[in-house]
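Teaching assistant here, posting this on the class forum so everyone can see the example we discussed in section. The complex has three components, and the goal was to see what a joint structure prediction looks like when all of them are supplied at once.
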Amino acid sequence: MTELPKARIATASLAGCFGCHMAILDIDERLIELMKLVEVDRSPLTDIKRFTKRCDIGIIEGGCCNEENVHVLHDFRRNCDILISIGQCAIMGGLPAMRNAIMHSDAPLRECLEEAYITGRYIRNTTHDIPNDPALPLLLDEVYPCSDVVEIDYQIPGCAPTGDIIFETLAKLLTGKFRGFEREMIKFD
Amino acid sequence: MEICETYANDRHRMLDILLDVQDRFRWISPKVMETVARQTGLSRIEVEGVASFYSFLSQTPKGRVTIRLCNDIVDRYAGLEEVAKAFEEVLGIKVGQTSNDGAFSLEYTPCIGMCDQAPAAMVNDVVLTKLTAETARSAAEALKAGTSPSKLVNERFDDLTAHEQATRMVDNNIRHAGEVLLGPVPEEAGLGKAVGLTPTQIITTVENSGLRGCGGAGFTTGRKWRFAASEKAEKTFVLCNADEGEPGTFKDRVLLTERPHLLFEGMTIAARAVGAKEGILYLRGEYVYLRKLLEGVLAERRRRGLLGKDILGVAGFDFDIRIQLGAGAYICGEEGALISSCEGLPGEPKTRPPFPVNRGYLGYPTVVNNVETFCHAARILDRGAEWFHAMGTEGSHGTKLLSVCGDCLNPGIYELPYGHTVWELLEMVGDEDAAAVQVGGPSGTMIARDSFHRRLTFDDLATGGAVIVFSGERNILEIVEYYMSFFVHESCGYCTPCRVGNVFLQKAIQKFRKGLANAEDIEYLKELSGTIIETSRCGLGMTSPNPILTTLKNFPLVYSAMTKPSKDRIRATFDIQSAIDDARRIAKRRSYIFDKDFSQ
Amino acid sequence: MSGTEKETGFTFTIDGVEVTAHAGQTIMEAADEAGVYIPRLCDHEGLRHQGGCRVCTVKAGGRSVAACTQPAAPGQAVENETPHLSKLRRDLVEMLFHEGNHLCPICEASGNCELQAMAYRLEMVEPTKFPYLEPCRALDASHPDIALDTNRCISCGRCIRASQDVDGKGVFGYVGRGIHRRVAVNGENLAHTDAKVTDHAISEEVCPVGCIIRKRVGFVTPIGEREFDKGLIGHEIEEKRHD
């Protein structure tokens, strides 16, 4: 009997801290088991920058705080059959989304940037400029959860999710056995 | 502080105390809250809880003249925008602001019960109706020149009788007088017969008449009285709900103006039936202009022995009524909330059970009925249960006051027996071209032409009285959005689904209006509405999704036409252009990714 | 007959399990005694029932009612853990998450938080359809021993009742209406009240979320070893039945 073709997986880190990608590595020795089932396409882990083929599963860490995040997320949605949000930032904006609730002025984004680069109490910025290089993607007015931008199929909660829940979810999805999480595994912290 | 002493430092009169404070100082300052708390033996936070609940009480200084423009959807369609602009221009302030010299405040307020003569406004205690840009401008100019608000109505306002004052401000617009309420009514005939009956006989008469509550809920009046009468208690209370706040409802306004004696007669009959010595008329804050008239009628009745001790010479038949003025809170039309408000608390509904008839005002059995219900009861006692029962249809007996407004030739009050079709009503009001009719106000049903054959009864199209007619030019989603913003404004906030869920519904409708809704959002509206209806604590949350649910059912195309399908499972509803607009402006450059030509 | 019923109690069922109650008991009180857990947030042992969060909504006699305030009735069949009710409750819990600013990753209460634990129990893991309201709310750190982060307040009012009824004080109260209704303190800020860190209202058990914070004791127990890391919320009640 021939081996089943391996599933292709891609991952991306948007507005997150890369902690969820680190958590993927927390799968530890079960990675070997997982690698028997999958091949990793576009991902910071492989340093492949563009999709080489259509993927079965895309894993997204982080929410959308700038135009590039939106662009990458669109690309993932177009190239992946199943899209998974992993971690609180992808699911609900997370820490980056704190800027959504601290802005009160008519120009909230400007207020946020000014506080971050000019007026903040602990800022030492001798140029008194807000960074503005053409290479910098434009920020969005707010930080958006991924499910606001594209349709998301599954969410793995946690900050970061445990290696266990990541492994369990992926292994079950790959073998068509996923029926939801065990309640004891659900954590938002 | 003497204001508190006027009310014997009674914490249950907190609303009266704070209304007087508001009148005198134009706001309720933290210092005043501390004084009031001390005098009434409460904590400051308890006083603040009341002061911050009611729209007509303010925790920032308001102008000596406060102009409240009614921003109901009917007023908007009648030209509110130009009226508001005229006030803004002359007074030099925007809606929501107070002038620097403290002379004027200009604000919006939900339906003030003048939809038949919209746009309307309250200027302190005075009501101005049928405003136009021109009349608004001249009113604002006169006010600015120091004219007192009442003089805007009539030069010799103070010389008029209270009834004249009320009717100069507000037209009755009685278009069709029925047999029960607005036709000829003999004085005190019902009460005269009631004193010859035992309480049980009175209740049986009301029960047999088939009378049901006219405020909207439609509970059988006789049964309510029987429950209260059967409670063994030291005291029993009779409360009249004159807080008709449902947008588009103004029928009680006309009864309070033209049939106040009949109303108080009905309350007195109820008092005899349930053994109450004290009654309260809860008058919505928007109807403050009727207070003088009603106080006058109460005084007259006391003089004539129709209130007070030994009414009509019957030993031991004692009953008196006080007026409790509301302060801008729709929720107080809910009977538990109304009772809370009478007790000097924020207008929050009470946990049921116990029901008010068992434990209501101050913990005593309490009958709460609508103005129209009491008026009907008085007539039933005079003419008999059979007379009333014979009118209307099975299950919906007698007549009903309908307040009709919106896009029609003859807005006003129609007293009709239950059972007319919407078509028949539209024929009377002069608008057979109507595209949509909102029956029962926002918490009722919005119907399209294919449902105009339906009948105005409790079992088909139930209504507390409001009938709002919309022509084909009106935007259904705009109407729905207004109604949802009304419920958001008026939710008391006690329970999660009503407090939060209605905000979500409002935001979802805004998405539809902007063309940013997904096809699945239609299902989302239904599901969220279902949760709110099923888990809310009182009638407000149980009906607040109705503007959405009934239009989804009867006008499905207005929703589906506004949805955007996703392509490649990318949400077309996420608007990248508006999301990067601020950043584009700050960075002074265009997007490499999402602007087609970024070189410009 | 009714006299004996009062003394000996009566029975009704919750999801088919027979439960004994006595007159005047609410559905929830009887359920707790019988070891049947009905989810709740605004209700707390020893405090008056409020019926505000609606998470305890059950079906009794075909009607949806709040189990914390609805009196139990003889012979009634109450539904508690049905897919439909779980959906309603999940919606309500999600509403509370979206109404405030609940960032579990940075919250000191994470793992001890009843709101979070309720989300776990009700499996709040689907992509959300609700918008985030993201209000701007102030932090009150004026008091030497206590801080209030109202971003996390769910308006359950447990602190209000605990302060009034147990401490006999009245440190907290509701102000405002509708979506602007919130818990406030009796004075300019918390330092201007008579709140003490030893008050029952301030104790760990009363605030279900991370709004009332006792200073200098944060993170004594590490994340991962906290109350709801050990078991689902409600398990203590449910264990009564299995014993």
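For the discussion questions: The two ends of chain A are 44 Å apart (CA to CA). The interface with chain B takes residues 66-68, 70-71, 74, 77-78, 83, 107-110, 113, 130, 132, 134, 136-142, 144, 148-151 of chain A (CB under 8 Å). Think about how each of these relates to the inputs above.
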